Amino acid sequence: MSRIRLILIPPSATLPAPCLTLDAQGNVLTRGVVELGGPAPEPMRTVAVVPGADVLIRWLPLPSGSPAQVAAVALYALRDELAAPADRLVAALGATDPEGRRPVAVVARSLLQAWRDYLETLGLRPDVMLPDSLVLPEPPQADRLTAAVFGADLALRGRDLALSLQPDLAEAVAAGRALDRIGRADEIERLLAAAALNPPINLLAGTGRGVEADRRGWKRAAALAAALVASPLILTLAAAGHDAWRAGRAEARAEAVARRAFPDIAPNADPVAEATRRLAAAPPPGGTVNAAAALFAAVEGVEGAELDSLTADARGVRATVTYPAYQDLEALQRAMAARGMALTDESTVDDQGKVVSEVRVGGA
């Protein structure tokens, strides 16, 4: 009997990953978790559900052609919604719908590799990766949205809509549409099993030879620099599961990769620190929509704070924020860091008893 392992990537590498084992009909055989240092998982087809908050999903009318050609067209069509160059992104394509459109899922190449690295640390090699929002069914009416909680986020699915976000933003995104919440564990398991048997999209299919080929080029070096230097996921794994010898080797590799990724770093500079600074200035993961949603949520979490303006252009995502006290900026930065983004203060002034900062949103 052919079996499938379905694993949900947790928000932190310190947490165990929920796991289901399914038979060929989608029946749940076992429930459990996979964690670092546990027994080696049994080889079988593995489907990983990733956080939908990090994936931009759109439906587009696309021409025929090879997958690589169609993905390139999709990235070009979405260029105004993306805050990173196309060569730093992966676009995966779904099946054409009756209206002639295809779902397109866009994710940062470095983040996709970080998820793969995490699973490989657990002894797993994924065959499929799909965002949690596409696990949900499309509602029958256009004035309704299907909703379910995955981890700390709420996934939403509607007509031409699939995304995950903080629950307190759901009503704003719904814009008057009714929310049909799925809360029963057995119903969510049924949806997960259906998605595992027939994945609506596979983020790994969008990589082609890209991720593997990048191991030999500067793009792969940049992805490794982002993972080794800046990713809490990889840092946590290194601290928890590697011995001193491998930690030392990892530090040396990080410095070497940072210099390959940014060859203009001065010889006497700390390459890891400089790479971290540059990566923080990189475009935020998930594009402008996710950056805006994260910034709105961060501002709402600080009493008296206001978002005065938000601009997205070739220079990245920038905003003007007003708040009561200087320490409130640190609270905003912590909230953005929890969403995998960096909030860099470019200028700060006092204005009639309040503090006004020009900030830039970048990748953490």
Automatic annotation (TrEMBL):
SUPFAM superfamilies linked to this entry: Actin-like ATPase domain
Topology with respect to the bilayer: Single-pass membrane protein
CDD domains xrefs: ASKHA_T2SSL_N
Keywords tagged on the record: Cell inner membrane, Cell membrane, Membrane, Protein transport, Transmembrane, Transmembrane helix, Transport
Chain ranges of the GspL periplasmic domain: 217-361
Span of domain GspL cytoplasmic actin-ATPase-like: 45-139
NCBIfam families per UniProt: typeII_sec_gspL
Protein name: General secretion pathway protein L
Organism: Brevundimonas faecalis
Lineage, top ranks: Bacteria, Pseudomonadati, Pseudomonadota, Alphaproteobacteria, Caulobacterales
